[in-house]
Design brief:
This protein is of the alpha/beta class. The chain contains eleven helices and eight strands. Helix content is 40%, strand content 14%. Helix 2 packs across helix 4 and helix 5 crosses helix 6. It binds 3-methyl-2-oxobutanoic acid. 3-methyl-2-oxobutanoic acid binds next to strand 6.
């Protein structure tokens, strides 16, 4: 599927400039991506949250480049309209400029991503330089500031950034980082788990769309993890909202199947093959 037929950076900017709120959700495989796309989101993030939401890990750190590329390629094959954003996994960037460019390029060339996203620490010069290089090379890049799960071990937990003593980042640092990312060429910034005031200040400071997850109401767009929205193996988080209960739907369907097989109701006459077609 060619990226040109899907939402481009220019399409997103048109909505942003018209004052419309942008929407983004995650997907890690083709069937969910197809439904999320059909639901009408502007962007699909093939998040490194696949590690915990899709692959059973405790956090995002174990996701490999091979897994991220495989997930992104599956999503690419299923999506017609939304921009597909590949999320660069922990350790896939930052070792050197060469490594970072090579891996970002693989998302576009091998997996069909339309853009990439990478997490940035407060005043994180390394990633800001990488984004500068990527955008020069024609790779649309999104920043990600606030709570950055890849730095979980350093931050100490999923604390709300920009507030009191539990935060490892001050509001000013987050604003300055977003400004530096804008200067480096990002087309948008994901803001994760920050106070609403921080979300608003960053949004006012930059002229690129801010996409919030737990960043309050005064941002330019919203992103959620689709598993949380669907009630699919997820926990209930304050920052999220559950719009369906797929765990219950799946359990009920499986329970019904088990019962029917055990009772000899399935397979039924209409499910079996005769020696000659009727
Ligand atoms: O990987 C992910 O799902 C993300 C979102 C939380 C923005 O980065």
């Amino acid at each position: 599927m060619s990226g040109i037929t899907r939402n481009s950076v220019q399409d997103l900017y048109e909505k942003y400039r018209d004052g419309e709120t942008l929407t983004m959700l995650t997907a890690y495989d083709a069937p969910i991506a197809a439904q999320v796309d059909a639901g009408g989101v502007d962007m699909i993030l093939v998040g490194d949250s696949a590690a915990d939401n899709h692959m059973g890990h405790d956090d995002t750190l174990p996701l490999t480049m091979a897994e991220a590329l495989s997930n992104t390629a599956a999503v690419d094959r299923a999506v017609e309209d939304a921009m597909v954003v590949g999320d660069m996994p922990f350790g896939s960037y930052g070792a050197s400029m060469e490594q970072s460019v090579e891996n970002a390029t693989r998302f576009m060339k091998e997996a069909g991503a339309d853009a990439i996203k990478l997490e940035t620490a407060p005043h994180g010069e390394t990633t800001i330089d990488i984004i500068d290089r990527l955008t020069e090379l024609g790779i649309p890049a999104m920043g990600h500031v606030g709570f950055t799960p890849q730095r979980m071990h350093q931050i100490g937990g999923p604390y709300i950034q920009g507030r009191g003593h539990t935060s490892s980042a001050h509001v000013d640092a987050l604003v300055e980082t977003a400004e530096a990312l804008e200067e480096a060429g990002v087309f948008g910034v994901v803001l994760e788990t920050v106070t609403e005031e921080t979300g608003e200040r960053v949004t006012e400071a930059v002229d690129v769309p801010t996409i919030g997850i737990g960043a309050g109401r005064h941002v330019d767009g919203q992103v959620l993890v689709t598993n949380d929205l669907l009630g699919l193996g997820g926990e209930a988080f304050k920052l999220s909202k559950q719009y369906a209960d797929l765990d219950a739907v799946i359990q009920e369907a499986v329970g019904e199947y088990v019962e029917e097989v055990e009772d000899g109701e399935f397979p039924a006459r209409e499910n079996v093959f005769d020696p000659v077609d009727e």
